Amino acid sequence: MPVSVRAPWPPPNSGPAGPGAPRCPGSGSTTVPWRRRSAASGCCGWTGGRRSPSHPCRGSGARPTAGCAPTPTTRTTAPGCSTRWACPRTPRPRPWPPCSPDAPPSAPRRRSTPPGGLAVALRTPREWRATEQAALVAARPLVERATLGAAPVRALPPLDTAAAPLLPAAGVRVLDLTRVLAGPVATRTLALLGADVLRLDAPWLPELPDQHADTGLGKRSATLDLAARPDAFEELLAGADVVVTGYRPGALDRFGLSPEALAERHPALVVAQVSAWGAYGPWGGRRGFDSLVQAATGIAVTEGSAQEPGALPAQALDHGTGYLLAAAVLRALTERSRDGAGRAVRLALARTAHWLTDGMPYDAGPEAAGTPRADDVAHVPQNAWLTEADGPLGRLRYALSPVNFAGGPADWARPPTPWGSDRAAWA
Question: What's the DSSP call for residue 202?
């Protein structure tokens, strides 16, 4: 659930377009409507058009500009071809590639976004299972695990079972190199359980304010140019117990952040990675996010129809994968405490999607799959899972963590700090 931010936070729609201007799709909303692209012709069908809220205009082909207003440009050569969005003061996106009305449904689809944009073709569950990537995803374990090198492990404080609250990750240092949304959920969960989580971002890649406030609970936030300050980054790695990355597979390898490269320099590290499609197969090098995975794997059709795609409540793949990743890190730390060996753990949104839908009659639609309707779900008062707290960002109203156990923490120990306001150093 997004946080509700009160003063002194800047007005959410302020920026180059002026206060009160309409916001670009994705600049704070995960419910931008799906966009149809030549569905009448059958050649391009639907593409996943909900935008990830990592920054304004993501996937539009335009350079992100905070607070920018949407400017529609429409291609009209075929019925139903998409509306594009551009941000003011940015290069105009390229027009959609033409699609032939005569192309059969099985014909290869033309690229539906310009370079830098993200889109996938909408598939039914059966169509997804027929792809090579789906077969590879299904053959992998839900959590991929590997043992790295062994080395003396930094001593952690003993767990005080008499302390209140009980913090199983107390003293663990987590270097958070993730962005929206599964990775930040994982590291936010580790922070809830007592870990010292330092979120690092490139100075030129700010997070959306609401997104940062929501996923920054319990963490510190710093910026660091890994290419310009490799020594400072290496010092952080040397003091870390866990490194969590959430970028496209291989994107950070040039900084020596592959599990193998990290194991050579810091063999006792726990390296946790999350991606959209997995680090293997023909889709292994692709970027992606929750909404696109739902569209590609058939969930969007199941939750709606091929004519009107739907979506799971919230970003369920992101959140579910994030909690699984946090659990995998805790298990890896427990195993490391016994043998001194580092561990690598990997999860993928597509694999979580397979786990959630495997064995269910999803091809027949949501009714056959037993999807509960709103009227069938017991009403829970909204305030039962909400709380408020004051902090550097003002007074925040936010959802409590679903992680709950006897004696455990009921809330995060610290509110989020302004993005990039902390030192890139361990506490």
Answer: -
Contact status, residue 118 vs residue 50, Cβ threshold 8 Å? no
Which H helix or E strand runs over 338?
helix 316-339
Q: Which residues pair with 86 in a beta bridge?
A: 71
- Residues with a catalytic annotation lie at 318
CB 110, CB 95: distance < 8 Å = no
Other Cβ atoms less than 10 A from the Cβ of 233: the count is 21
pLDDT under 70: residue ranges of the chain: 1-116, 361-378
Rg (CA), the chain: 22
**Other C-beta atoms lying within 10 Å of the C-beta of residue 73:** 13
**What pLDDT is stored for residue 47 in this prediction?**
42
Q: Which one, of 411, 409, 414, 407, lies nearest residue 399 by Cα?
A: 411
- pTM to 2 decimals? 0.74
What amino acid is encoded at 274 in this protein? V
Question: Which residues, in sequence order, are bridge partners of residue 301?
Answer: none
Angstrom distance (rounded) from CA 391 to CA 217 = 10
- Kindly report the backbone phi and psi dihedral angles of residue 353, in degrees, each rounded to the nearest multiple of 5, phi listed first: -60, -40
Domains of the chain (ranges, CATH numbers): 1-119 (no CATH), 132-361+372-399 (3.40.50.10540)
Close Cβ partners of 334 (under 8 Å, ≥ 6 residues apart)? none
DSSP string of 369-417?
A: HTPPPGGGSPP--GGGGEEEEEETTEEEEEEPPS---TT--SS-SSPPP
73 forms beta bridges with: 84
